[in-house]
Amino acid sequence: MASAKNILDHFFLEMRWRTLSLAADLDRAERGEQSAALFKTDSRLQKLHKAFGILASASGNRAEQVQNLFSDTTAPPPR
Q: CA-to-CA distance for 24 and 29, rounded, in angstroms?
């Protein structure tokens, strides 16, 4: 298994790019019309904010936690 330093050496620039891209997407949404109401009520943005908390945590299994956060847990329609 690669060391943490090797992983960061290899992936840091891509991770930085993805972070900047996400920040830019959120900035664009915030500048849009009626953004104040949307940022308070939209469940998708609320989930993104929860995901940011997961990413910032020091716990393991962050990918699994974020996947579960965004997973559809409703029952499938009857056949």
A: 9
Structure token digits, residue 43: 């469940």
Q: Are 34 and 40 in contact (CB under 8 A)?
A: no
The span from the CA of 39 to the CA of 45, in Å, is 6
Largest CA distance in the chain: 51
For 31-47, the pLDDT digits (tens) are 888 888 887 889 999 99
pLDDT digits (tens, 9 = 90+) for 57-69: 988 899 999 999 9
30 CB contacts (<8 Å, ≥6 apart)? 39
The count of C-alpha atoms lying within 13 angstroms of the C-alpha of 16, restricted to the half-sphere facing its C-beta, is 6
What does the block give as tokens for 37? Answer: 């109401």
Rounded-to-integer distance, Cα 29 and Cα 73, Å: 27
